[in-house]
Amino acid sequence: MLKSDLTGAATAERLALPRSLIPARRGGVWGDRLYQGMVRAAVLAFVIIVVGIAALLVYAARPALATFGWRFLATADWDPVAEHFGVLPFAYGTLVSSLLAMLLAVPLGIGAAIFLAELAPFWIRSAIAFLVELLAAIPSVVYGLWGIFVLAPLLRRWVEPPLGRWLGFLPLFQGPPYGVGMLAAGVILAIMVVPFIVAVSREVLLAVPNHQREAALALGATRWETTRLAVLRYARSGLLGAVLLGLGRALGETMAVTMVIGNRPEIALSLFAPGYTMASVIANEFTEATSDLYLAALIEVGLLLFVVTVVVNGLARLLVWSVGGAVKEVRE
Amino acid sequence: MSRAAARRATNAAMNVLAALAAVVVILPLVLIFGFLVFQGSTALNVDFFLHLPKPVGEPGGGMANAIAGSLILIGLAALFGLPLGILGGVYLAESRDRRLPWICRFLADVLNGVPSIVIGIFAYTLIVLPLRHFSALAGGVALGVIMLPIILRTTEELVRMVPASLREAALALGLPQWKVILRIVLPTARAGIITGVMVAVARIAGETAPLLFTAFGNRFWHHGLDQPIAALPLQIFAYAISPYDDWHRQAWAGALVLISLVLVMSLLARLATKGLYNRRGNYG
Amino acid sequence: MRKLTVVAAVIAALALVAGSQVPAPAPAAAELLINGAGATFPYPIYSKWFDEYAKVEPSLRFNYQSIGSGGGIRQITERTVDFGASDGPMTDEQLARAPGELVHIPTVMGAVVATYNLPGNPKLRFTPDILADIFLGRIEKWNAPRIQAANPGVTLPNDPIIVVHRSDGSGTTYIFVDYLAKVSREWEQKVGRGTSVKWPVGLGGKGNEGVAGQIKNTPGALGYVELAYAIKNHLSVALVRNQAGRFVEPTIESTTAAGVARSMPADFRVSLTNAPGANAYPIASFTWLLVYKEQADEAKGKAVVTFLHWATTEGQKYAADLLYAPLPLEVVRQVEAKIGQITFQGKPLLVAR
């Protein structure tokens, strides 16, 4: 079996030329300095923006942080009238709906990207690629309304009853089929996230140099084996980037999810049960939040969503790194 | 089964699965598009593109100002997000610094997960409150911030995919680093970066929540970038949540127009960048 | 690459130029733009009014966006808009936070109805305690004895009641729970009043449209929406027993009747639920426009005040077609007096006509 390190990444690193060997041409040094300055400035500006948002959130959430402390993380109660707030059911909802969405979207998305990049005849390729990008442009409110009027009834009548009958021994599929609920939210998130994964993955796969494929084919690999060994492995970092982009969208999506998830701040094991996500509760109650503590509690939920995103991203990277080796150095 | 036959069978099965995946991915689009066309096509007429919104029950209302407003907001967002995003992405792919790229990459993924309404609140606090009024500018900034991580990460990944052999050849010929990036690397990665930009544009074109507190919406033509401005998602949202069928139809028509706008922009972007370098890092 | 940069630069320049120029034919000086924000419920009638009023005063442009009652209150407090709109009256703390004295002007009335999805679309009657207990989770099935007793002759299915409420904070919710708190001690203590509450049971739908859509698509569902949404979605509407003991159908007339049957406080911050009149529908409310008593800008102040006068008199005739209930005449008289108290630098802005 061929070793995976076809690319000779290590060789490339070793051959990297030190700067001093590049002859200084006219416009060389100053151009380089300007370039370095500009890119550094861009990155710093970016970091400042993100840190600024986090700082703003922390500042605005102060009253809630002070009042509730750690209890906020463990309480499952959300009572705006009595001013008891706890984030647990929302965190559960966000994590479960996003997980479900990714479970559906990643295999489908990468599979479709492989089809579009490697297997499809040329005329199908661009057409479907465009169609997929169109999916990304549909406003989330349209997804939400389509969800209420088409998806939820569909699930309630054709999908949830059979699932309940055949797989009802699992707590995942118990309870009355409302149509709306965690399953609907996961499905609609998957639909919204798939275009990102497909579009970016396809570009990444197309960018894999041909000689990788040619080398594998020359050794007698089938198309699938070529894809698996030469292309996917080379493109691993890019594919992870695509998946993380999709994941980010899933974690932060509000409009469409809140229309189909049932908006019940309770933790339930069943996918048929209604749930609630962190992004949804912010969107639902922010404009109407009457007291300062209420507002601060909502902003604290936003802050915690920030934290959840950090943790989930970290875990995802860790997972890929431990399974496949360092994700970064894939050049040749 | 012989080894070779097993491998051929796996190959065939995987091809089928991949094709199936593509079909399943397209299916919701067909359904949603069908839903929109079925519900909204009756409201698409010349009035829709030329007139301002009218109260319910009166014929001849349109979304002309919202269409223009959305285009302007996307332009503003791109002005803010494109340079930062592409430069930042290049940095992330090319830099040999130890910590900054890693932090930046992480923060980009995190920012991508922040709900758009929170970014709207950020822009509101930063721009609307000090100026004491809503403006197109604030809306553009909010949308630009949402675009940033998508463009940043896509650019990084695509630039990273450019083979080092190309870079080394250019460097060996004596080109300074910045010229290598500008003339060799970026053009090679161009198609993919454009896709990333178009995906980002598609994303912000449909965003409603961040515009609620920034661009605010306007029933009339705006008179400057420091005034409230109409936008398609806002108008669609306002009509979709009303009880009137007439407004519902206009909302679906508006969604169709929005999607078509993104499609046209995407086509234009592709046409304008047809170049020498094909995707696979090869020439010709 | 060069071609692309040039193209991009040209497009960007064009966009900026287009964005800052005035596409409309009229010069900016002749038009005054007045911004308002707030409740979603009155958005249709306000758009109608602004459009009709533009025929009376063509130089004025009123731009109203529905971001929610709470949003309206917040924006008028921070003075980023010229007027606010709310389905629920501001609390004392909210009023205290505003930099000036805010005036509540009632504009129209609306009714919150109990709507449901049952086979055969029977016309149901609910007593206040039945409604409260359904939303408390104490009554779980459609054919519960108490519901059957209030509806003799109707065959009710042996199915669970799927309760649907609002997930987003809203004035509609406020009106409904205010009513439940008045008629049920348990509701008042356990859940209370607010634009968002902790619902004991039920699914949350986003917006009136979300709730109506949910009910329409779920057999056995019961929820509350503004009257217009129930009618437009062809949903069954229940009769509710009012304080006088009669089962009243929610109509435009019975809603207006609820505004009469009450002594009006001077600042119009009143709850009209469970009104005492014989024909009054018990779950009704005003919706208010919020303006500062002392206006900061004379031209805008004058524009707002003359519009308010027009809306509460001439404008009322447009209400019924859009399924809003006009203000009762007694209230209109008091409202006119109030509008006369809005001043600029101490002088009333409304010139007597």
Strand arrangement across the biggest beta sheet of chain A: 1-2
The strand count of chain A comes to 2
Largest sheet of chain C: 9 strands, mixed
CATH class of the largest domain in chain A: Mainly Alpha
Largest interface: A-B, 115 and 109 residues
Radius of gyration of chain A: 24 Å
Order of helices and strands of chain C: HEHEHEHEEHHEHHEHEHEEEHEHHEE
Could you tell me the strand content of chain C as a percent range? 15-25%
Give me a quick take on this structure:
The complex is a heterotrimer of chains A (332), B (284) and C (353). Chain A is mainly α and 332 residues long.
Q: How would you characterize the overall build of this protein?
A:
- The complex is a heterotrimer of chains A (332), B (284) and C (353).
- Chain A is mainly α and 332 residues long.
- In chain A, 71% of the residues lie in helices and 1% in strands.
- Chain A is globular.
- Chain B has 284 residues and is mainly alpha-helical.
- Helices cover 74% and strands 0% of the residues of chain B.
- Chain B has 2 domains: 3-43; 48-283, MetI-like (MetI-like fold), CATH 1.10.3720.10.
- With 353 residues, chain C is an alpha/beta fold.
- Chain C is 38% helix and 20% strand.
- Chain C is built from 13 helices and 14 strands.
- In chain C, a hairpin with a 2-residue loop joins strand 13 and strand 14 (347-348).
- In chain C, helix 12 (298-312) packs antiparallel against helix 13 (329-339).
- At the A-B interface, helix 2, helix 5, helix 6, helix 7 and helix 8 of A face helix 1, helix 3, helix 4, helix 5 and helix 6 of B.
What is this structure's SSE topology?
The complex is a heterotrimer of chains A (332), B (284) and C (353).
Chain A: H1 9-15, H2 28-60, H3 62-68, H4 71-74, E1 78-79, E2 84-85, H5 88-119, H6 122-137, H7 140-167, H8 182-206, H9 210-218, H10 223-234, H11 236-252, H12 255-260, H13 278-285, H14 292-324
Antiparallel strand pairs in A: 1-2
Chain B: H1 3-40, H2 46-50, H3 64-94, H4 100-113, H5 116-131, H6 136-161, H7 164-172, H8 177-205, H9 209-212, H10 232-240, H11 245-272
Chain C: H1 2-20, E1 32-38, H2 43-56, E2 60-66, H3 69-77, E3 83-86, H4 92-97, E4 102-116, E5 125-126, H5 128-136, H6 145-150, E6 162-166, H7 171-183, H8 185-190, E7 203-205, H9 207-217, E8 221-226, H10 227-232, E9 236-237, E10 239-241, E11 247-248, H11 252-260, E12 284-292, H12 298-312, H13 329-339, E13 343-344, E14 347-348
Parallel strand pairs in C: 1-2, 1-3, 5-10, 6-7, 6-8
Antiparallel strand pairs in C: 3-12, 4-8, 4-9, 4-12, 10-11, 13-14
